[in-house]
């Protein structure tokens, strides 16, 4: 037991010596790094945008959504016309089936069956086309917004820009950090310089926060 106490005292003595040496040799370097790290944390510039508001007032998205909706309506009307035409053919067949021969019945039913399959394939093709157009629009929207935020962040000295919406992890942000309106104005200015058309929807005051 006595030997254990002596050994412990020696270990403690060595530890004290090591700490003493570190304090006067490497300690200053450690403190400098810690101070530098603290300074970086203090100087970190963060901002956020309300993504719902940006999407609501960004002219590029409004215009392209209107165009996509118009194409969707045309596709839907075309499909309805084709479906109505097939329905009329089926109704005519049902009215005249009693006066048709067995061969005519088989041929007509086979023809109507093929037309029905083609109509279903056409419907699936339209749905796939719309999905691809929506995906393309979302990709272009993401690229435009992120490219603008990168330039905006570099100009303003921002290290981080967060997205705020009901699904995000951000629960609160001071209005001082909210750059939503500046981003909307900048995006729309860039869009106007492209000579692109404006949306027909009535504009609303973007200064109102939708948080």
Automatic annotation (TrEMBL):
Alphabetical keyword list: Coiled coil, Membrane, Signal, Transmembrane, Transmembrane helix
InterPro entries for this protein: Chaperone_Skp (IPR005632), Skp_dom_sf (IPR024930)
Signal peptide range: none
Organism superkingdom: Bacteria
Membrane-spanning residues: 6-24
Coiled coil segments of this chain: 58-125
Region described as Disordered: spans on this chain: 190-211
Annotated family: Belongs to the Skp family.
Full protein name: OmpH family outer membrane protein
């Amino acid at each position: 037991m006595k030997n254990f106490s002596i050994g412990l005292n020696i270990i403690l003595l060595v530890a004290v010596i090591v700490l003493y040496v570190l304090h006067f040799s490497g300690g200053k370097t450690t403190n400098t790094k810690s101070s530098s790290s603290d300074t970086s944390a203090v100087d970190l510039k963060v901002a956020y945008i309300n993504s719902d508001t940006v999407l609501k007032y960004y002219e590029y998205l409004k215009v392209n959504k209107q165009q996509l909706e118009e194409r969707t309506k045309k596709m839907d009307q075309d499909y309805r016309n084709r479906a109505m035409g097939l329905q009329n053919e089926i109704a005519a067949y049902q009215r005249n089936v009693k006066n048709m021969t067995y061969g005519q019945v088989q041929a007509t039913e086979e023809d109507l069956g093929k037309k029905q399959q083609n109509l279903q394939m056409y419907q699936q093709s339209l749905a796939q086309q719309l999905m691809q157009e929506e995906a393309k629009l979302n990709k272009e929207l993401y690229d435009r917004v992120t490219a603008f935020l990168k330039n905006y962040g570099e100009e303003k000295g921002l290290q981080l820009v967060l997205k705020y919406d009901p699904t995000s992890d951000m629960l609160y942000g001071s209005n001082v950090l909210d750059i939503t309106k500046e981003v909307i104005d900048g995006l729309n200015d860039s869009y106007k310089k492209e000579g692109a058309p404006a949306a027909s929807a009535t504009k609303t005051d973007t200064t109102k926060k939708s948080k």
